Amino acid sequence: MTVKTTIDAPAAEQPDSAPFFVHGKVIEAGEAIHRSRDLGVNFATPAVDLNSLVFPRTELPPLLNVPLTEIIDFLVEAGQKLCDGKNPYVEACIERMAKVSLQPRKAIEYQMLNAAEYLDKRSLWELVEQNFPNPKALDEWIPHTDHQGRRSFIRAFPPRLIHVLPGNAPAQGIRSIAQSALVKSVSLFKMASADPFSTVAFLRTMADIDPDHPVVRSMSAIYWRGGDEAIERVLYRPQYFDKLVAWGGGDAINNVMKYIGPGFQLVSFDPKTSISMIGKEAFASEESMAAAAELNAQDVSIGGQEPCVSSRFTFIEASPQEADRYCKLLAERIRVDRMGEGTPRPLEMDLREQIDVLRMMDDEFAVFGVTDGRGVAIRSTEPVDFHPLRKTSNVVCVSSLQDAMKHVNVATQTVGVYPFSRMAELRDYLASGGAQRVVRLGEAGPSAIGNPHDAMYPLHRFVHWMANEDGCIGDPQ
After folding, report:
1. Which of 12, 64, 136, 148 lies most in the core, judged by the most C-beta atoms within 10 Å?
2. Residue 172's pLDDT is what?
3. Backbone angles phi, psi at 60, to 5 degrees
4. Which is nearest to 181 in space by CA: 92, 99, 291, 68?
5. Where is the signal peptide (predicted)?
6. Whose CA is closest to 256, among 246, 241, 270?
7. Spatial distance between the Cα atoms of 377 and 277, rounded to a whole number of angstroms
8. 279 and 263, same structural domain?
9. What is the pLDDT of residues 348-402, one digit of tens each?
10. Which of 121, 209, 126, 138 is nearest to 180 (CA)?
């Protein structure tokens, strides 16, 4: 079954090609025209051939009996090829993504060229060892005998996965490919309209090394418009896949939820908001206040504030007058061009208008900076009722950081704390509120290798845990 989607496009417009990658083969045809969600830019893809995307359950996964050591060696080699500076797929991908992404070109370039850092041998092994108490379960059936003498064999069996990828993090494609390879899965990656290019660029790089490698044959990456029932009602079935690994906004998650049922599970990396918490110690001196503002700005500015890990709200133990001094410094530091991004994309009209209205409400709010996309700090006594975006930080005054706990919930991902010594007193309350990660202020971006993500060990969730029970020891054969 083939599905073709076309939108009306100006005749003179030449949309960029977004090829598919299906079980090791590149499909270049541009039969369907799509429009990116964020910027309304057209791109062309092949028609979707549903039959080619399904790997029969009667066939064993290609990676089943490939040793994990060999898989990791292949990923490391691919990482070296990705970052050699002469990769034509990566270069073309950066050019095309700059047209459809909200992120500045320099930010895209930085993320693409540094994605290969994930494919480090020590890092990949540490990731596996953190997720699996006994990594041998990925390679073989592990014997176990319980206290009653019942004998079993346990295997972390390769799953069949659909990954709904995010559009705001180009590096996530390579991470998802690596994680899929480590659990030996057969994987289909649904790319986003804000990034219909990077995952295929990574897979083509791997195919150049060995087009017949089991890792390559286990992977497919295509684009279709989210919510297209002609495709999703066919693919999102337990006959074909075990789990749906979904990244994305609320609409994307809500869309896939309707397909979840017995035998077809959801592993959701749904939308999260990250925050900062700054104690009164920041006002001990001008130097300490400046240091806190710089670290805070680093967390706000991550990826142009597109990723979930970027700080959006800062809760600070301060009076409004103290907070205004802090916000002035924070806005200045947010506006620093840390990656040579150049001219940013301006804020959307509705967000600019909301911030400009707050600027006129002197008694309740104070606004520092300009709504040009380079950075703004908004002081208030309660969180604003809109989603801070594009280097916008809402600084909320509290009498105690404990008072900020009422704003922590299961959608709170990362919490950066200053001074660092106060993390220990706050972490139990943050966990009780639903937060998933607490770090030093300024360190929201880099994550410790193999740690839980969104309160789970992802690789452990991905695999199909299989038990072979073989009776009691001493039973007659």
Report:
1. 64
2. 83
3. -75, 145
4. 68
5. none
6. 246
7. 15
8. no
9. 888 888 888 888 877 789 999 888 888 899 999 999 988 888 889 999 999 999 9
10. 138
One domain, residues 226 and 296: no
What is the separation, in whole angstroms, between the first and last Cα of the chain?
49
Q: Is the bond preceding residue 419 a cis peptide, omega within 30 degrees?
A: yes
Tell me, what's the pLDDT at 262?
86
CATH number at residue 318: 3.40.309.10
The answer for residues whose C-beta is within 8 angstroms of residue 179's C-beta and 6 or more apart is 127, 458, 459, 462
Would you say residue 30 has pLDDT above 70? yes
**One domain, residues 277 and 250:** no
Provide the domain count of the chain.
Answer: 2
d(CA 466, CA 462): 13
Within this chain, do residues 182 and 141 fall inside the same structural domain, yes or no? yes
Please indicate, yes or no, whether residues 237 and 277 belong to a single structural domain of this protein.
no
What is d(CA 382, CA 378) in angstroms, rounded to the nearest whole number? 11
**SS3 category, 317:** strand
Higher pLDDT, 459 or 342: 459
- How far apart CA 412 and CA 315 sit, in angstroms, is 13
**What phi-psi label fits residue 346: left (phi over 0), alpha (psi between -120 and 50 degrees) or beta?**
beta
**Domain membership flag for residue 351:** yes
CB 333 within 8 Å of CB 293: yes
**CA distance readout (Å), 311 to 82, 254, 326, 353, 372:** 30, 24, 16, 22, 19
Per-residue pLDDT of 104-154, as tens digits, reads 777 777 777 777 788 999 999 999 999 999 999 999 999 999 999 999 999
Specify the residue for token string 């452990």: 460
CA nearest 416: which of 315, 343, 303? 315
Edge-to-edge strands, sheet with 16-17: 16-17, 42-45, 32-35
SS3 116: helix
Report if residue 448 sits inside a domain. Answer: no
So what's the pLDDT on residue 254?
A: 77
Give me the helix-helix angle, 320-334 and 286-301, nearest 10°. Answer: 50
Find out whether 281 and 259 touch, Cβ atoms under 8 Å.
Answer: no
Q: Which sign does the torsion angle of CA 352, 357, 358, 362 carry? A: positive
Could you tell me if residue 468 is inside a domain?
A: no
Full domain range(s) for residue 248? 2-270+455-462
Residues 311 and 383 in one domain: yes
Whether 195 is in a domain gets the answer: yes
In this model, does residue 8 exceed pLDDT 50?
no
- Co-location of 418 and 363 in the same domain: yes
Q: DSSP state, 134? A: S
Mean pLDDT of all residues belonging to the chain: 88
Residue whose structure tokens are 């009722």: 385
**Does residue 253 sit in the same domain as residue 331?**
no
